[in-house]
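Before we proceed, please read the two lines closing this message. Let me know whether the structure tokens fit the sequence:

…
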Amino acid sequence: MTANAKKIKVTLVKGIARTKADHRATVRGLGLKWTNHTVEVIDTPSTRGMITKVGYLLKVAE
């Protein structure tokens, strides 16, 4: 991880109670723990893929 790596702010805007188990695992993998929790993740192809997979639960700010 470099100091100038591009970061994305990701917020969990919907609950994960009735979602698929792998979608819940993806949300936890992004570091999100509860509704309206926001984290900054490094912009990599793998995190982009995770965001795409559970995009219906998230709000993303570049």
